[in-house]
Amino acid sequence: MFFKNKKIRGEMLKNLILKIRLNLRNLFTTKSHSKAEEINNQDNLIKNNSKISCILKSMILSNIRTKQPASYFFNSSYKNLTLITDDNIKIGAALFEPEFVDKQTKYVIFLHGSATNRDDISEIGDIKFLSKNNFMLLIPDYRDFGDSEGTFEKDKVSLDVKACFDFFIEKYSAVNVSIIGFSFGTAISAEFIKFMHKNRYFLNDAYKPTTLILISPFTSFIKLISEFKITSVLKYILPAVWKEILYTFNFDTINNLEYFTGNLYLFHGEYDPLIKSSHSEEIQKKFNCYFKILQTDHMRILLNDNLWKEIENIF
Q: Which residues form the AB hydrolase-1 domain (predicted)?
């Protein structure tokens, strides 16, 4: 369930290659004889850059396969919720409730990665087990994922996470909310921390996560994407596209974590081919926090029994 849809990604890659070829042809062919033709070619170049950017954004988020109608999420294993963000966007969320809610109940928000939705995450057996141990677990789908409204934006996704805090605070008067982030969700977690601090929401202690658990984090999006060969192609052949991608996904996890004052825990798969464990090592070195390497890879870490045993022990 955590593997990206190969057919969709293959089509996107095919379209991307075609767009790049077209741009290269426009870039290196001789100039038009007329001013009108030059303007027309320039307009086409801008349009093609925009299309390439859209394809790359879709590949990074891989959110197309996560989209489902609202009826898809009516699952007996969790309560299906619709939360309203401060900018009036409806987002879907899965709620796992303990049998009884008391002063010892622990409130946790799980922020998933790309290419997945709340229903995928709900199928992890150990996630369900948390609710049996007095955990209240909320798994939101960010805007543009699942059946959530809106378009994904780095500057807006923090409002999706805040809506989860609002729900816990307003309905349960929760003051001890924690966050578990996985992969892309770790960047969203840290972005939320910075957003809440800069907008002074942390003056209310209920909005301060007491514990932050990051599974397979990356230090920054720029560093992560720079580890892939396609980066050099984008930088030098399509600089406008490169700049737009950086603007859209310029998550800076390691620096955003400077605003976090609670307990930080890191977990990473030793054989992770997508996000190298060196990213977690760098974060651990800076913040001197708990860090555990697990004998698994990026896709299977959420299925690792030792991970969930560690998480249960943390709480």
A: 108-191
Number of domains in the chain: 1
Determine the structural domain holding residue 191 and report its residue range: 69-228+253-314
Where residue 86 sits, what CATH number does that domain have?
Answer: 3.40.50.1820
1: β partners = none
Give the pLDDT confidence score for residue 217 in this predicted structure: 99
Q: How far apart (Å, rounded) are the C-alpha atoms in residues 143 and 153?
A: 8
pLDDT of 11 > 90? The answer is no
* Residues forming a β-bridge with 111: 181
Query: What's the whole-model pTM score?
Result: 0.84
In a domain, 242, yes or no: no
**Amino acid occupying residue 150:** G
| More confident call, 18 vs 3 | 18
